[in-house]
Design goal:
single chain, alpha/beta, 7-stranded mixed β-sheet, 5-stranded parallel β-sheet, 22 helices, 22% strand
Length: 648
């Protein structure tokens, strides 16, 4: 078996919050839970007892005491904590203190802005009052078109305190792309900004904000951060009249926010989560899995368009300080995130495999060039991280800092698997299934498998599973998304392997599976091999079923210095050695860039369909793509390939 990169010390285990929780459970339920694996097994075998233990361990505040944990267990439709009322915001403001900031805004130019707990709560109370004065009521939608700045967090808290429903997207989206998402909700209020700074330049978004506002006829009020235009009020005016922040109690399953799918293959799906489910799931994920508490500084590089923005706010649920950064993570230098972490004493830093790979390619030395002595953990998500990147982080940050890859989704606004302070970390693997997640890998027949690739499924409900999809009145789209393959079982759409030592390997999306001669393979295995080569900036592999029954598996590589025969041979050798001979592609093709969703995921499925002859307009929403020029190159290449095939 491969050696662990990090193994918890006795002190790590003894001091971990998950250990404290295990002792709490042992005393309450007269059980023995000597390690994480036994606690996980108990958490899924005694699901109701587990979630009630989470509730009591964190002393969650509620207007009514819970009497029933899970009234209806089936999926979809599980009903948690019926009759219980609470508010997400109550769980935040209970941690108010004067000796540490609530939010730190890290700007590209190296300056910072501190928002104290009192400032955050006062501004949220004032904005809630302004929204209420403009007729915002429980169940109304308030939307944000904002960069990742403290005002976005404050606007969310103000909205949720009223029982209104929050939704947001970043200002990297055009007005039309933002309207495709936020306009569905028929919101009554819009919080926006005049622009943001990225790559050393201010990006003026006043005009886009105006177009967005004009496109939403249901708006009653618009608040703009920066110089207001049109009928918008300024942020300073909207938060000038200080009023007490008094969260209203709402049912456990009252909508908290709407987060959106990437929207690459059609109108983005609005996924609705509830107050109670998010509070429970995020306290578990942030405190028990990530080991964060009131003395931590939590920084995940993200955007309001991505669920990790919602996840980072959860740091406030534990009393941690959170860091907002709205600039380019590689500006003015490739190691900019490490610089922020050092300057602010970040204890837990979250980023993506792509950023880590960029740091490797740029030959950065974060552990040498920056004081990262405060860092206790690193989180990685967005795609599968190669083992080589895990090893690089261990060597360049320090073997004493665990690197926790996590995998989940916008769908549950959390993770299914990741790390724990009491479990080893293996390179390229997710250490453990998360507590309360009945995670398994299923084969085609619905049988559970271990040690081989299968579909990621969850066999028991989670509190943060969607309440419903927006504008899906009969639940058809929701059921089709997760429950068609295995009725009553959540199928997520990822290929995973459950290992014999309790960890999880993620191989990529199952709907973009490479399937050669009946052998299923994950794209992540190829990326790990290819993207470790210095000459390769990025890679994209597609598995394309052809009309004549054939199968074509091209590998597109971004090679700034050109694709030579010698490099082709090394690419094939790396794949053959690190993955298998079956993974070696039919063709290796140089591409100028790889297009992604705006949350950083490669467009494997849409591009596969385009290469199979599907109409681009019906397959892909270009506004949801980060690099339209890169997308157009692939569209043109697919059209040329199809012309050649027709001529044969």
């Amino acid at each position: 078996m491969i050696s662990a990169l990090w193994t918890p010390t006795d002190a790590d285990v003894a001091e971990a919050r998950v250990t404290e929780f295990a002792r709490f459970v042992e005393q309450r339920h007269d059980v023995t839970l000597p390690d994480y694996a036994s606690l996980w097994r108990w958490s899924i075998g005694e699901l109701e007892s587990f979630w009630r233990a989470v509730w009591d361990f964190f002393e969650i505040r509620s207007a009514t005491e819970p009497t029933t944990v899970l009234e209806e267990r089936g999926m979809p439709g599980a009903r948690w904590f019926p009759g219980t009322e609470l508010n997400y915001v109550d769980q935040v403001i209970r941690h108010a203190r004067s000796d540490r900031p609530a939010i730190v805004h890290a700007r590209e130019d190296g300056s910072t802005r501190i928002v104290t707990w009192d400032d955050m709560i006062d501004q949220a109370g004032a904005l809630a009052g302004t929204l209420a004065d403009n007729g915002v009521r429980r169940g109304d939608r308030v939307v944000g078109y904002l960069p990742n700045i403290p005002e976005a967090v404050i606007a969310f808290l103000a909205t949720a305190s009223l029982g209104a429903v929050w939704s947001a997207c970043g200002q990297d989206y055009s007005a039309s792309a933002a309207l495709d998402r936020l306009g569905q909700l028929e919101p009554v209020a819009l919080i926006t900004a005049s622009g943001y700074t990225y790559g050393g330049k201010f990006r003026d978004k006043s005009a886009d904000a105006g177009v967005l506002a004009e496109g939403i006829p249901t708006l009653r009020t618009v608040v703009m951060i920066g110089e207001p235009s049109g009928n918008a009020s300024s942020w300073s005016d909207a938060t000038a009249d200080r009023r007490e922040l008094t969260p209203v109690a709402v049912p456990f399953d009252h909508p908290l926010w709407v987060v959106f799918s990437s929207g690459t293959t059609g109108l983005p799906k609005g996924i609705v989560h509830g107050h109670g489910g998010v509070v429970l799931e995020h306290l578990k994920s942030i405190a028990l899995q990530s080991d964060l508490g009131a003395e931590d500084v939590f920084f995940w590089y993200t955007s309001p368009s991505w669920m990790m923005w919602n996840f980072q706010i959860a740091g406030l649920l534990t009393g941690a300080t959170i860091v907002c950064a709205d600039g380019n993570p590689a500006f003015p230098r490739p190691d900019a995130l490490w610089d922020i972490a050092a300057r602010l004493g970040v204890t837990y830093l979250g980023t993506s495999p792509g950023y880590v790979l960029a740091c490797i390619k740029a030959d950065t030395r974060p552990g040498t060039d920056h004081d990262l002595s405060a860092l206790r953990g690193i989180g990685i998500t967005g795609s599968a991280m190669p083992a080589s990147s895990s090893i690089w982080l261990s060597e360049n940050i320090g073997a004493q800092v665990p690197v926790f890859s996590i995998s989940g989704g916008t769908d549950v606004v959390s993770a299914f698997a990741g790390g724990a302070r009491t479990a080893p970390v293996w390179p390229g693997e997710l250490s453990v299934p998360f507590l309360g997640v009945a995670l398994e890998a299923y084969d085609e027949t619905g049988g559970s498998v271990q040690g081989t690739v299968g579909e990621l499924v969850v066999t028991e409900p989670m509190p943060s599973m969607p309440l419903y999809f927006w504008n899906d009145t009969d639940g058809t789209r929701y059921r089709e998304a997760y429950f068609d393959a295995y009725p009553g079982i959540w199928r997520h759409g990822d290929w995973i392997t459950m290992t014999d030592h309790g960890s999880v390997l993620v191989h990529g999306r199952s709907d973009s599976t490479l399937n050669r001669n009946g052998i299923r393979m994950g794209s992540a295995d190829i990326y790990q091999a290819v993207e470790s080569l210095d000459e390769i900036t990025e890679a994209l592999v597609l598995g394309i079923e052809l009309p004549d029954g054939g199968y074509w598996m091209p590998l597109f590589v971004v090679v700034p210095d050109g694709l030579t025969d010698e490099l082709r041979e090394r690419i094939e050798s790396a794949i053959r050695t690190q993955a298998s001979p079956r993974h070696v592609p039919d063709d290796i093709i140089a591409a100028p860039a790889v297009p992604h969703t705006r949350t950083g995921k490669k467009l494997e499925v849409p591009l596969k369909r385009i290469f199979q002859g599907a109409d681009t307009a019906g397959t892909l929403d270009a506004s949801a793509v980060d690099d339209p020029q890169a997308l157009q190159w692939f569209v043109d290449r697919a059209a040329e390939d199809q012309r050649v095939q027709r001529a044969r």
